[in-house]
Every structure is written in structure tokens, then in C-alpha cells.
Amino acid sequence: AMPTPASRGDIPDTALKPKYAIDGMTATRYSSGATMAAGFYFQVDLGAAKMISGITVDAGADATDVANGYDVGLSTDGTTFTTIASCASSAATVEVINFKATSARYVRYTNKGGPGPKNGATSWMSIHEFDILCN
């Protein structure tokens, strides 16, 4: 994830570190640790190419933590990403994104802007659970 926040004394790691967005528990999360900006992303390496046809991004109950527009990129090498889905407006608290099944090893969800109409002035990008639909 970018940014990956450092441990902080005032916030437990289970509310900051990227690994908590893929642990199967909605009570934990990844948070950017900084006011959201264009280019912040969350990326998963599946370890090998798989057929992928969608993702679900759960921002939890706090609607101010949603991405302000997003791109979903897929890659086989982790360097060159092809945008497979895009949204110009704020995401829902549970954003379900489906697309044509595509072979990829890496899945990247990228925020498009600073705080938008659904965010507070200093909102962080947070993901409680990031699920990938593999076929």
C-alpha cells in the first residue's frame, strides 16, 4: 500500500497496517495514515496469475474513509498496470466492482483525488476488507 503508515502510539496497528485489509475481519483495517491524495493505492500480489473478475472494497461504517474516485488496475508483472475499471465519483462504503475476467497476478485500487464531497477535510483512505473474485 502507498502510503504505508508507521506504527503510532495513538492508533493500534490493526487500524493502520495493510495486512489488516486482507485478514477476513471487518473490525480491522488498513488506513493511509495521512489525508487522502491522488495516487494513494492498495495493491495485492496473488503470488501467481489468476483469472480475476471483480473486487469488493469495504470501507467499514465510516463513509468519510471512502476513495474519492478510483481506478482498478491489473498487472502480470507488478510494474505495468492496465486500468480495468474506473469511477470518477466517491465510492460507496462497500464498493463492488465487477469486470470481464482477466488474467493478472497484481490487483491495484488507486484513489483519484484529495478529500471529496463524502469525505471530511482530513479523511484518510481506509479499507476494512479488500476481496478479490477469482474464477
Structure description:
The protein is an all-beta fold. Helices cover 0% and strands 51% of the residues. It contains no helices and seven strands. It has strands at 30-35, 41-58, 68-75, 82-90, 94-111, 124-127, 129-134. The chain has a five-stranded antiparallel beta sheet with strand order 4-3-5-2-7, with no helix packed on it. The two termini are 24 Å apart.
CA radius of gyration is 14 Å
Described by strand count, sense and barrel closure, the largest sheet is: 5 strands, antiparallel
Work out the number of β strands.
7
So how many helices? 0
Structural class: mainly beta
Q: N-to-C terminal Cα separation, in Å?
A: 24 Å
Give the helices and strands as they follow along the chain: EEEEEEE
The average pLDDT score comes to 95
- Percentage of residues in DSSP E strands: over 45%
Q: Identify the strand order in the major beta sheet.
A: 4-3-5-2-7
Structural shape:
globular
Which regions have little confidence, pLDDT < 50, spanning 5+ residues?
none
Portion of residues in helices? under 10%
Topology:
Elements lengths: L29 E6 L5 E18 L9 E8 L6 E9 L3 E18 L12 E4 L1 E6 L1
Antiparallel strand pairs: 1-6, 2-5, 2-7, 3-4, 3-5
Q: What's this entry about, in short?
A:
The protein is 0% helix and 51% strand. The chain is mainly beta and 135 residues long. The strands form 2 sheets. A 5-stranded antiparallel beta sheet has the order 4-3-5-2-7, with no helix packed on it. It has a two-stranded antiparallel sheet with strand order 1-6.
